[in-house]
Amino acid sequence: MIAIGGSIGTGLFLGAGGRLAQGGAGLVFAYAVCGIFAFLMVRALGELAIRRPSSGAFVSYSREFLGEKGAYITGWMFFLDWATTVMADITAVALYLHYWKLFKPVPQWLLALIALAVVFALNMMSVKMFGEAEFWFAAIKVATIIGFMLIAIGAIIFHAHTGTAPDGTAYTAGVHNITQFGGFMPHGVPIMLSLTLGVVYAFGGTEMVGVAAGETQDAQKVLPKAINSMIVRIFVFYIGSVLLMALVLPYMAYSSDESPFVTFFSGINVPYAGDIIQVVVLTAALSSLNAGLYATGRTLRSMAIAGSGPRFAEKLNKHKVPFGGIIITSALGLVGVVLNAVLAEDAFNVIMDLAGIGIAGTWSMILITHIAFLRKVKKGEEQRPEYRMPWAPFTDYISLAFYVVVVLSNLWSDSGRKTLALFAVVIVALIAGWFYARGRIQANLMDEMLDTEIDENQ
């Protein structure tokens, strides 16, 4: 459930609108390509997880095949992924609330701060509370997407009215929304490439299946089915939804500050449809925010125990919740609040692209770990399970090259250059953090070795 909640969030419910407005129907192709590479990454992770299921997932595998430095990079990239997703989600909540006149006078940064505080309080409660909330969040999102797809298909079949242009021209659903208005990629390939990092962000969370593997009793039987069925659902929800968005309205009808689902339902003239969907996408953002704080709190605690994270992150409250890690993530979430204050218009795009870099970094480390595993297989030190990443290691290298191109394509846009500048600061901080943490990591390893020797001698 956490994997579903994390992967179906603001990337689709808000990000797709801005991406469609900038790139046109070609966004469908971008989603399809990114979906294929997301699938390859999950297959690589699945092969590692079936070989040795671990709740530590890809961080644990990086430690095994790349050493402590590899585990450090993987862990912090995963943390960056979810911490920036938290920032993106509080920004989305603020933008969604501005849909209603009641909240328009309230500053965007203040709404983002309130959203962070509410979900922080929820995460301080028991895991049971988290699970119940996440179940209902996910159920509402899935029902909304299915409902949208059914209504959109009906609108296309009957060429229904779906909105009105600023000049009064009526919009109708149909293939003409792709073939006209500048064609498939109205602003060219470079612009579409610069938007792809936001699409990678939309697929973030698919790697959580590796975390779930550690809690599965029969991983060799259950995990392949889970991976294949999850990818099918993601492809249907994402590629299907974006294709239908492109068919029901021309690309210029969408905007970066409104959910494309709200744009569609507001245009079909059904009373209160826009308001109802706005509530739904608001719950989607809260769901992703909820999952983000849940994941980062536990990731930071695991890293702290290994010596690569701050000691404060080890702390648990009376509900066995890693409140230290959640507090640290929430404190970083305040950076998102500041960005909402100083970059209100660009805040979501900058944060979304930064989260996309974190996701691309996490996925790249999974692939590099898989390559290291295959090298051990070649030496006869390991054996591959029956469930394998297809055409590896060729597909590993192709995937890595794709992620590099996607990240560098951000140089084509102003917000992308801001994102890369922020990421450069993050890299410097990570390098400094390694030199600070490596002594503690080595001390922890020495303690483990001594404990092992004592146990063997007893």
UniProtKB/TrEMBL annotation:
Transmembrane segments: 28-50, 71-100, 106-123, 135-158, 191-214, 235-256, 276-295, 321-344, 350-373, 394-413, 419-437
Biological process (GO), any one: amino acid transport
Top-level division of the source organism's lineage: Bacteria
InterPro entries: AA-permease/SLC12A_dom, Amino_acid_permease_CS
Segments forming domain Amino acid permease/ SLC12A: 1-443
Gene3D superfamilies: Amino acid/polyamine transporter I
Compartment(s) of residence: Cell membrane
Pfam assignment, any one: AA_permease
GO cellular component, one term: plasma membrane
Broad class of where this protein is predominantly found: membrane
Keywords: Amino-acid transport, Cell membrane, Membrane, Transmembrane, Transmembrane helix, Transport
Membrane topology listed for this record: Multi-pass membrane protein
Family (UniProt): Belongs to the amino acid-polyamine-organocation (APC) superfamily. Amino acid transporter (AAT) (TC 2.A.3.1) family.
Name of the protein: L-asparagine permease
